Amino acid sequence: VLEGKMADVNLTEVTLIVGVVAACYWNSLFCGFVFDDVSAILDNKDLHPSTPLKTLFQNDFWGTPMSEERSHKSYRPLTVLTFRLNYLLSELKPMSYHLLNTIFHAIVSVIFLKVCKLFLDKRSSVIAALLFAVHPIHTEAVTGVVGRAELLSSIFFLAAFLSYTKSKGPDNSIVWTPIALTVLLVAAATLCKEQGITVVGICCVYEVFVAQGYTLPLLCTVAGQFLRGKGSIPFSMLQTLIKLIVLMFSTLLLVVIRVQVIQSQLPVFTRFDNPAAVSPTPTRQLTFNYLLPVNAWLLLNPSELCCDWTMGTIPLIESFLDIRNLATFAFFCFLGTLGMFSLRYPGDSSKTVLMALCLMALPFIPASNLFFPVGFVVAERVLYVPSMGFCILVAHGWKKISNKSVLKKLSWVCLSMMILTHALKTLHRNWDWESEYTLFMSALKVNKNNAKLWNNVGHALENEKNFERALKYFLQATHVQPDDIGAHMNVGRTYKNLNRTREAEESYMLAKSLMPQIIPGKKYAARIAPNHLNVYINLANLIRANESRLEEADQLYRQAISMRPDFKQAYISRGELLLKMNKPLKAKEAYLKALELDRNNADLWYNLAIVYIELKEPNEALKNFNHALELNPKHKLALFNSAILMQESGKFSNISVQ
């Protein structure tokens, strides 16, 4: 039986794999923080030692409280914990983050080799592990720092599976310790990334078809006899059933806890993130099914890789006559044939194919869009675990071909070429992650129909204060996706930076006209990306420079607040405007409302203190200055103004040096 083949990984194999990973990823150490790394690391307060550890378990991956609507609901505290460790060692210097990712990838590759040895011979196992170590599809997971969620989850995922394979004792008895360890490791994998839980499905398939050696016809025969009352279930099958029930029950418990954590709310994604998710039937189903062969093609031919597949990257399939449906049909036929072969026939080859298919399919299910929509169309990093199944299939197929003496030399040449070209592509692809500009420019070479990419190149140029060039990319984004509110806002902001006020106002007005219209008397129900509401703030901030248009600016702030009563920035900006309009009482009202939404904002307490000075209430003003200083002892304006206030009211002696 297959599990009898299991051999430990020797030092030569470990050295080979670690060496290959180092050779492929050494240049990733010189890359910076790009794309999602900015939100997950640079802007994430959960990494700072001053943040209590318990907040890691209350916030999502990006540092947003899970209870907030804008939260992505991706709960990965163990991954954030490793980012925090990096921060302790090197604060925000990217090299240590990239080094740890490369180490984790090497660890996954070595554990994967151990898993391969359960289903393949020694040589094929090393080939599968080498192909996994060098595959270019992994650059997003390894070189992109946020991809660490995949790497960590995979370590626990494979460890859970290896632990489960030891749960069968002599005489088919159940060994409970490895099962308990499996459940713990599954929980750890899920706390690194959600798809970790799918290893339970792989354990179940392994138990039934590999450890027990059942085939589908045999199971059907036993079930049929039992239902007709002609026979009882064999004892070994009952034992298997007990193991599966324990596994399933503990998984169900994990799912219940996970649903509690996300507070039964699914995250909010816009139609720009995943256009097919909001499309009608059959467009939605045809497009989502077509994405499966697209992902498979990326594994087979990872020549054109792209960091962002949202928006218009893959045009929707709106008809059954679309030629791309043939790819979907061929993919399902191939998968179905392999599946039927592996389930019907006994023998090691069918078991290897079955386990490879499970490794490809089950971990991919959460990202497949088939059961619930996700915030992307295709994401290369989610192919990290499914590529393991692909590598086992390739190694197994290569072994079959190389056994034929005619093809032996050719198969070795092809294999060597494939591993070499994949390694070179990985090495070359790593340089794309050097900076935001290089990453998004490389993506535009592959895909010119995604407005988000044009916007992101514009942002990278804008950060370098190169506004003229940034404007060209932002304008191109509005041509590619004319209804993209964010692109028009970017154009407006860039015109403002170039002091072209009239064009800036026109762009903001255009963005505002694309917003869903309010129906009087009805609750604002259209789901909207909160950052799109900034169009009102930006437009109001622009026109309030003109003294004669202050009322018009106030009207815009009020409109934003009516759309989203929890829009903090609108209250803050409106408070500043009302002070400018000599309406301190209304300004106080606005700031108090903002404080209800965010009591830990030192600037808000400072602004409220200024309002109290205008209202001739120095004691209240002083209280608010002190509150601001409690939250931020280095708040220079609060220090300066509270000192003046104390001096004026004769309390100078009470000043304590901060």
Automatic annotation (TrEMBL):
- In terms of superkingdom, the source organism counts as Eukaryota
Q: Which SUPFAM superfamilies match?
A: TPR-like
> What is this entry's stated membrane topology?
Multi-pass membrane protein
User: Repeats (TPR): which ranges?
Assistant: 451-484, 568-601, 602-635
Record has Transferase as a keyword: yes
* Residues in DUF1736 domain copies: 264-335
Q: What is this protein called?
A: dolichyl-phosphate-mannose--protein mannosyltransferase
Give the protein family. Belongs to the TMTC family.
Single GO biological process annotation from the record: positive regulation of proteasomal protein catabolic process
Give the Enzyme Commission number.
2.4.1.109
Q: Which InterPro entries match?
A: TMTC_DUF1736, TPR-like_helical_dom_sf, TPR_rpt
Pfam families annotated for this entry? TMTC_DUF1736, TPR_1, TPR_8
Tell me the pathway.
Protein modification; protein glycosylation
Query: Which Gene Ontology terms of cellular component type are present?
Result: endoplasmic reticulum; membrane
* Keywords carried by this UniProt record: Endoplasmic reticulum, Membrane, Repeat, TPR repeat, Transferase, Transmembrane, Transmembrane helix
Report the GO molecular function annotations.
dolichyl-phosphate-mannose-protein mannosyltransferase activity
- The record lists the membrane-crossing segments as 14-35, 99-120, 140-162, 174-191, 197-220, 241-261, 323-341, 353-376, 382-398
This chain is encoded by the gene named Tmtc3
Q: Where in the cell is it found?
A: Endoplasmic reticulum; Membrane
